[in-house]
Amino acid sequence: MWSFDRKNGLTLLTRNGMPDEEIIGLEKSNNVNCIKKKLGNIFKENKELKEDINKRKLASVTDFCASNISVDLNPSPRKKLCTENKTDKHDGKRKGQMNEENTEYKNGEKVLCFWKQDQKWYEADIIEKRSKVLTYIQQSMKIDLLAVVLLLNGILIDASCPARCACGNSVNGVNLYCYGRNLEYVPNIPNDTHELTLASNKISIIKQFAFVNLPGLHDINIADNLITAIEEYAFVGMPSLHFAKMDNNMLTTIRAHTFDATDIRDGMNLTSNPINCDCGVYPLWSWIIERQSMNAEATCSNGTLITSLGSSELEKCNPDNCQCLNDGKCVMTGGGKVICDCIEHWTGEMCQGIVWANGHQWLELNKLIIQAQHKTTVIENMQQQLTLEVNKLCQCFSPNDATDPLDHLFNSTLNIMSILAFGKRLEYENPDFTTLRARVKYIFKHGQSLGRKETLFSWLALFTKSQVSEVIGEMDKLHAFIKQKLENHVTDNNSKFPLDLLDVYLNLSDSERKDSALSERNFFQAIIDMYIAAYETYTGTLMTLMFHLLKYPDVQTKCREEIHRVCGGKQTVTIEDRDELRYVESTIKEVLRIAKPVVLAIYRTIPREIKVEKYTIPAESIILFDLNDPQIDPKLWDNPNEFDPDRWETPQKNGYLPFGIGPRRCVGAPTVELSLFFMITNILNKFELIPEDERNLPMERDWTGISLFPKQFKMFMKPVEYQQYT
Ligand code: HEM
To answer: Where do the EGF-like domain residues begin and end (predicted)?
Structure first.
């Protein structure tokens, strides 16, 4: 049942059982109807997915901005930690996201603050966290055990008979009998032990190397304890082991490397343990399968014999086929698919990158990217390279032949990202450019993080068809491409004057680079995330900007007049002109408001239960912010559906959210704002944009799954003479 209310500008929907059509219960908006329809189709096709969704709690909060929700979400006393009245050098409204100065510490824990309309800083961690996403991975990593074994060979434990145990001598060595002695730990065991009985105690964990250097140990019995975990390498050092009884404990999983360098020759008993037979069982399963001569009695929690599990399914869990980074674990879903379950801070495909990272890892990457975009030398370089990009872009149009701008604008988007990342635009014909374009496009189309149309919730992608290994293959090639660029940068790099993200990365201190959040792998993935994040959003915005300049020639003329008046015939409009080109800035803002380049923010989750007005939203709910509604809410805007740059002459209410809100706001926003300004002023300075057919510029737009794009149109670009205006 949906519970639904609309009060004080807040639309809130929660649900218990979710009917197909009501997956996202945002009423009113056409875009959302479209989303519903799309997800509805997936539902109809997919029973497994329906079941999964029905197990989850889902809440959707819209009109976020209008609702004062961040204050309501956040009654915690930690709010006091966030300093008031800080100003932002870069953006009069909002503090640069993650500078150390707006990060405060409490008990060593970072508390993030963000700017809110009423001039106060608020803690925002509660909704900062990305919702967990489980996806597939592939690749492998192996631990070199040999070194460990060699190390251990030298260790001898000098132990006499442990307290509370009985030791009897036999021809083969000591029989150590510790049955039912209330032991909570494995005692020190004499090196000449032949039989070891530790059954019926209260042992809860078997530590690493617990039985090290027991060359003659023949039988071990640790049955009937409270064992919940056997640490990796716990069984190393028993080369003569014939029998191991471990039944009737509380083991849910046997980790990889537990039995490494161990041979149990005759038999083992692991029955009556609640062992999960998902991917976690792979190490045990493969270890048993390799030892055909051993009699293995081992069962899953449901009683299935582990030896009877299907090898074709379990092979997918083989670390050679499945690797999760940052300590993520491969897990198998009900459908036999293998995915990455990331530990608390990480989410996403391989538990890496920025879009799906949380906590410290996210913060460090976010800080690096934000700081880079604010460096003067980076901004100057961007301006220089954008001049070249605009010139090339304009050459793709003609005063006589009408051209569809879409493809060309995609090219410019990629180049803007390349300028930010590597400091240089690439020629459109350059093989590096065409390959990069093809790879980003492929990942965007088939990938699971941002690009899949049908998967606004990317965890839904688990259940839909996917080209996972191909996507990961493409990602790997992009990683190699970025690594190559980084290596070239090492030689070119003038560390004093960073020009791009790679320079900023290279300038990190050794200790900063040791932080796994800033490892090459994570940093490269963050760059890929940015390419993907920019791909449609930025192109869609450029398309919408062109469209409005064609649709409203008076706005175009007014922009050009302002540019000519302020810049007085300069060849290149520069960033210094920005403050005076207010109408152009207003036009860009108005386009970003009306373009809805991102309809719904990337979903987040709340780590603890929260109350919003009369609603209680359960912990772990997925929160979706509808960025569209506040931007066209009649309570916030006069004539919200009208394209009217002049409205920005007076201060507007707080409903402008093209980049989202809070610490998880778009990390590329400074580059977007700078490059949109730079591109459009320099195009209009020299060209008039003319539609091929002014009657054929419909306002309806196509929804791609993330952005709204104008319907296809063609245009001419005609050189203009500089006009002197007073
Ligand atoms: C007009 C163009 C763009 C728009 C409208 C836009 C909008 C957004 C929005 C709404 C979000 C989600 C924020 C949230 O979860 O609340 C986002 C996230 C993000 N955007 Fe953009 N974006 C644009 C271009 C770019 C570009 C050019 C880049 C890269 C330079 C970029 C990088 C990112 C990244 C990395 C995130 C994830 C941030 C995080 O998880 O902390 N975006 N963007």
So the answer is: 318-352
Is 322 annotated as belonging to a binding site? no
Least confident of 123-132, 275-284, 447-456: 447-456
Give me the residue spans of the domains in the chain. 145-341, 359-719
Helices (H) and strands (E) in the chain, counts: 17, 25
pLDDT digits (tens, 9 = 90+) for 344-392: 556 656 677 888 777 777 888 999 999 999 999 999 999 999 999 999 9
Rounded-to-5 percentages of helix, strand, coil across the chain: 40, 15, 45
Instruction: In whole angstroms, give the CA distance from residue 180 to residue 178.
Output: 6
Nearest CA-CA partner of 328 in 361, 285, 363, 305 = 361
- Tens digits of per-residue pLDDT, 338-352? 777 776 556 656 677
Residue 413, pLDDT > 50, answer yes
The average pLDDT across 416-434 equals 96
Element (H, E) at 173: strand 173-177
Helix (H) or strand (E) run with residue 369 in it: helix 359-373
**pLDDT top residue among 128 and 268:** 268
User: SS3 of 5, please?
Assistant: strand
Candidate of 666, 667, 677, 707 to mutate for ligand 1, largest count of ligand atoms within 8 Å of Cβ? 666
* Ligand 1, atom 30, residue with closest C-alpha: 668
372 lines ligand 1 (CB under 6 A): no
Q: What is the pLDDT of residue 291?
A: 87
Pick the atom of ligand 1 nearest to 598's CA: 10
How far, rounded to the nearest angstrom, does the alpha carbon of residue 309 sit from its chain's CA centroid?
33
Fold of 145-341: 3.80.10
Place of tokens 């379990």: 314
- 359-719 CATH, one of 2.30.29.220, 1.10.1040.10, 1.10.630.10, 3.30.70.260: 1.10.630.10
**pLDDT value, residue 510:** 86
Map residue 363 onto helix, strand or coil: helix
- Alpha-carbon distance of 609 to 391, in angstroms, equals 53
Q: How far is CA 295 from CA 175, 618, 637, in A?
A: 23, 48, 75
Ligand 1 in contact with 691 (CB < 6 A)? no
d(CA 340, CA 180) in angstroms, rounded, equals 41
pLDDT for 256-300, tens place per residue? Answer: 778 766 778 899 999 999 998 888 888 899 889 888 889 999 999
State in Å: Cα 667 to ligand 1 middle: 6
CA 449 – ligand 1 centroid, Å:
13
Residue ID of nearest Cα to ligand 1 atom 37: 355
359-719 has the same fold as 145-341: no
Q: Dihedral angle at the C-alpha atoms of 330, 335, 337, 338, nearest 10 degrees?
A: 0
| Amino acid sitting at position 333 | T
Report pLDDT for 161.
Answer: 87
- Residue 128 Cα to ligand 1 midpoint, Å, equals 14
Q: Which residue has the higher pLDDT, 547 or 115?
A: 547
Ligand 1, atom 36, lies closest to the CA of: 666
Four-point Cα dihedral 661, 664, 667, 672, nearest 10: -30
Residue 128 per-residue DSSP state: T
Dist. CA 597–CA 65, nearest whole Å: 17
